[in-house]
Every structure is written in structure tokens, then in C-alpha cells.
């Protein structure tokens, strides 16, 4: 009987403590981070679709940028060509204008 009372009291205590927690509000900074991560994931998927061998793609320096020209994802990519060799690191920009690989004007416009 005594153990049943302890179990019941313990269960009530856990329910009260768990029920007292309030959901935390998402801050503006957290929303911005989530947006950047979402844009970056979508951009890399678009970039991979434009490559001949998407599975071989290696990325470096990938970052989300928001400029007066618009939102974009910048970085460098190295992937295999049709002959199976890596082409070397090339700058890329994925923006509302599309996917640009090795385009100095697009890289300057968004990433510098």
C-alpha cells in the first residue's frame, strides 16, 4: 500500500513539472538561421542537378548571402567531368537568376 502511494505521488509530481513548461518562442535570429539553412540546402540541390556527376561533388566555403541584388548561396565546387577526372575548384553562385559556375560577374555581384 505504501509503495502505491509513493508511485502515485511521484507520477503526479512528474506530470506537474512537465506540464509547467511553456513552448519557447522562435526568435527573429533563429528564423533567419533556419531560412539561411533552407535556402542553402535548396541551392546545393539545384547545383548538384546541374553537374554531370552530382555524387562526386565536393563543396567548400559555402555560405548564404543576402545583398541588395538578392539572396544567393556562394562557394566553390569540385566535381568529376565526363572523363572521370576532377575539374578543380570552381566558384559557384546559386541565386534567383539560376546556377552559375565559374562566372566571375555573378560571383562579384553576390559574393564579394
Explained architecture:
The protein has 112 residues and is of the alpha+beta class. It has one domain (2-111). Helix content is 43%, strand content 26%. The protein contains three helices and four strands. It has helices spanning 2-19, 28-49, 104-111, and strands at residues 58-67, 70-78, 90-95, 98-101. Strands 1-2-3-4 form a four-stranded antiparallel beta sheet, sandwiched between helices. The longest helix is centred in the middle third of the chain and has 22 residues, at 28-49. It is globular and about 50 Å long. The termini are far apart. 14% of the residues are buried. Mean pLDDT is 81; it is low at 1-17.
Strand order of the largest sheet: 1-2-3-4
Count of separate DSSP helical elements: 3
N-to-C series of helices and strands: HHEEEEH
Query: How helical, in percent, are the residues?
Result: 40-55%
Mean pLDDT: 81
Measured distance between first and last alpha carbons: 74 Å
How many strands in all?
4
Strand content: 25-35%
Low-confidence stretches: 1-17
Main pleated sheet: 4 strands, antiparallel
**Silhouette:** globular
Q: Any idea what the radius of gyration is? A: 24 Å
Tally of separate domains: 1
Query: Helix/strand-derived class?
Result: alpha+beta
Amino acid at each position: 500500500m505504501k509503495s502505491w502511494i509513493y508511485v502515485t505521488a511521484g507520477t503526479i509530481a512528474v506530470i506537474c513539472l512537465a506540464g509547467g513548461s511553456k513552448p519557447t518562442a522562435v526568435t527573429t535570429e533563429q528564423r533567419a538561421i533556419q531560412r539561411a539553412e533552407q535556402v542553402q540546402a535548396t541551392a546545393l540541390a539545384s547545383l548538384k542537378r546541374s553537374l554531370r556527376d552530382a555524387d562526386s561533388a565536393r563543396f567548400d566555403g559555402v555560405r548564404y548571402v543576402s545583398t541588395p541584388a538578392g539572396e544567393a548561396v556562394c562557394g566553390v565546387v569540385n566535381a568529376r567531368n565526363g572523363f572521370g577526372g576532377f575539374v578543380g575548384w570552381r566558384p559557384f553562385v546559386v541565386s534567383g537568376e539560376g546556377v552559375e559556375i565559374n562566372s566571375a560577374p555573378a560571383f562579384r555581384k553576390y559574393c564579394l
